[in-house]
Amino acid sequence: MAKLDRLERLTDLVLVLLSARRPLTLEEIAAEVPGYPESREARRQAFERDKRLLRDDGIPLATEPVEGPEQYGYRIHPDAFYLPDLQLQPDEQAALHLAVAGVHLGDPSGRDALLKLGAAGLTEARPLASFVPPPALVALFDAVRSRAEVTFTYRGAERRLAPAGLWFRSGRWYLVGWDLRRDAGRTFRVDRLEGQPVLGPPGSAEVPADFDPEAAVPDEPWRVGEGDEEEVLVRVDAIEAARVAEEVGESAVAEHCPDGSVVLRLGVTSHDALRSYVLGLLDHAEVLAPPGVRAATVAWLEELAAMPSAEPARNALTREDTPAAPVRDTAGPGPPDPSVERRDPSHRLRRLLAIVGWLAQVGEAPIDEVAVRFGLPEDELVHELELAACCGVPPYTPDALMEIVVTDEVVRAFLPEDMARPRRLSPAEGFALAATARTILAVPGADEGGALTRALAKLDAALGEHARLVVDLDEPRFLDVVRQAVDDGTQLAIEYHSASTDETTSRVVDPRRVVSLAGHWYLDAFCHRAGGLRRFRVDRLRSVEPTGKEVQSTGPLPEVTADAFVPGPGSTTVCLRLDPAAAWVVDTVPALSVRDLGRGDQEVCLAVGGLAWLERLLLQLGPHASVTEPAELADAGARAARRVLTLYA
Asked: Which DSSP symbol is given to 133?
């Protein structure tokens, strides 16, 4: 006897539990759903795997007490399985399609959510933004939405929080809430949570009515912390003054100096974050006061400067800027194989239920149309539909199976009306819709009262409040100009300060695309000076002037990824040894490889596009990192530290 496809067992399990009028014990489930092992222990393990898969996919499998030796039974309540009618208008559906198509989150959750809502294939749209959420973010979103207490570990300490909101600001996600043990408002960087958070029951945590979560969200990373705020003065030279003043806000500028530099007055609760920010500006910034903060910065630099030196760098990094065309290391992992996703039981079940739901609405459709709509080869689609036609409820006679008829060209379905109702979204799918929609609405010039806002309001009413998920995008001064140039297809003459080389150059570029990556806006353009596609951070543009000429370069653009930097042929592989205090690099900087060295140390290899970029990273890491390859860059951090120390002499 051939082994039963797990998808068939999962589909039967869903149909049986949906139709159950009372909770079914595992023994009863195994008797009614084919495919479970005969051994009691193996059956229990198989059911636990199925149960976890269904719940992870957002299927509300309820556990209820029953009389008898098994004590618990299981069923799926239809009202919890299906969504209420959202009454989305065509323009609202189209707006959600464009949001999911325009904002890339690194997984298919947004697409899956649209399929559950009965949507067609994704609309083609110009990509506007891309970011990969930290692993804990979906669970935290579910906690915020359901007002559930959440427990997690942060900087080695367990925290219990009544979550009030999630904010995306300056490229970071922040969780804001009321700390139940400290009886005070607190803010946490989501990427610094250790492990997965644990959620309490819905409604288990209330935030005090007078707590303002938005006021608790830091505008700057050096305001994240639990210490008393201290005023710190920082001088930024004329090269970086305009950009930094725009970044921190004019209210933080204490003085505009005659030489073009500025003095910033910053309120600081995290001195580590401030030091990292200042050293990220290389020798363009200097801590002036108070003396203790200045002395601590000097001590950090002196420790790095005293590290062992090697031969001077021999132009190991000379590349001018960042190619926009990705180049993949052939020794590393290749792009994800779509066929692997298609074989995953969770994905197959999610897709099959979406196909069945759509067929219940339309009744009949050409095979090729269904294949395109759900992104499947026709032979795979036919296989899944034939499997679905064998699924149903006991006694699995023809009248108890799903009536799906597949011919060479057409599929016909005669299914109950309930199956046409959209299914409730999983936390990941709900997050994807909320995050993509709110990102689009955060783009300067978005229609805040349009179809997308109306669609979000309907989702909030049906799924729980999403308004406490907030996306803030920066708005650099030349953003409108470069976006208009892309729309008009006209050239620009720009002056640009490169983060890779710490140099300012003049160029003529053909703008091709503007996209937000990790909280910053980037211009992808053909650079006539470099003779190829290059990526420019918009807030680093010193000047922009339209030339009045049409763009000369056309052709396909590389796919947008969440990484602002994609290594090109001019990049250099640099390997660093990191101690545990520098482990954040692995989660923050795109790595070619990571190797565990024991005792918490790691070796990470990075594609580096310019010496200045590497110097910034090494200054921020200080004594917690060392260059292991190439040898000529072993003292790059020490040399950069000695150069910056001249500001403090």
From this structure: P
CB atoms within 10 A of CB 400: 13
Helix axis angle for 378-388 and 345-362, nearest 10°, is: 80
Cα of 471 vs its chain's centroid, Å: 12
Task: Locate 487 and state its tokens.
Answer: 């729309």
Name the token pair of 177.
């809430």
Please, what is the angle between helix 109-116 and helix 90-102, to 10°?
160
DSSP letter for each residue of 320-370: -SEESS----TTS--S--HHHHHH-HHHHHHHHHHHHHHHHHHSEEEHHHH
CA distance 410 to 422: 23
State the pTM of this model: 0.80
Q: What is the mean pLDDT of residues 36-53?
A: 93
Q: How far apart are CA 179 and CA 211, in angstroms?
A: 11
How many CB atoms are located within 10 Å of the residue 414 CB? 12
Q: How many CB atoms lie within 10 A of CB 613?
A: 22
- For 413, how many CA atoms within 13 A lie in the half-sphere containing its CB? 25
CB count in 10 Å sphere of residue 441:
18
The Cα 401–Cα 525 span in angstroms is: 56
pLDDT (average), residues 107-131:
77
Q: What is the DSSP letter of 168?
A: E
* pLDDT mean over 565-579: 80
Structure token digits, residue 559: 């796919």
Q: Pull the structure tokens for residue 637.
A: 């951090």
Cα–Cα distance between 371 and 88 in angstroms, integer?
25
Q: Is the pLDDT of residue 320 over 50?
A: no
Q: Is residue 564 over pLDDT 90?
A: no
Strands (E), 473-578: 490-497, 504-517, 520-527, 532-537, 541-550, 572-578
SS (H, E, C) 210-270: CCCHHHHCCCCHHHCCCCCCEEEEEEECHHHHHHHHHHHCHHHEEEECCCCCEEEEEEECC
Cα separation, 186 vs 162, whole angstroms: 10
Residue 167 token pair: 């904010």
DSSP β-ladder status, 593-598 and 601-608: antiparallel
CB-facing half-sphere around the CA of 121: CA atoms within 13 A: 10
With 0-12 / 13-18 / 19 or more C-beta atoms within 10 angstroms meaning exposed / middle / buried, residue 508 is middle
Q: Which pLDDT does position 467 carry in this prediction?
A: 65
CB of 557 closer than 8 Å to CB of 591: no
Most distant CA atoms of the chain, gap in Å? 88
Between strands 230-236 and 184-189, the pairing is unpaired
Q: Output phi, psi for 264, to 5 deg.
A: -100, 140
Rounded to whole angstroms, how far apart are CA atoms 207 and 161? 9
Q: Are strands 157-169 and 469-471 parallel, antiparallel or unpaired?
A: parallel
Q: Nearest 5°: CA angle at 112, between 342 and 99?
A: 130
* 488: amino acid identity, one letter: D
Strands 193-199 and 184-189, how do they pair?
unpaired
Residue linked to tokens 């139709």: 19
What dihedral angle (degrees, nearest 10) is formed by the CA atoms of 252, 258, 261, 266? -20
Closest CA to 526 of 499, 494, 501: 494
Sign for the CA dihedral angle at 92, 93, 98, 103 comes to positive
To the nearest 10°, the Cα dihedral for 537, 539, 543, 547? 50
**Which residue has tokens 């490889």?**
593
Identify the three-state secondary structure at position 615. Answer: helix
The residue among 535, 491, 530 whose CA lies nearest residue 510 is: 491
Q: pLDDT value at position 278?
A: 96
Kindly state the average pLDDT of the residues 159-165. Answer: 94
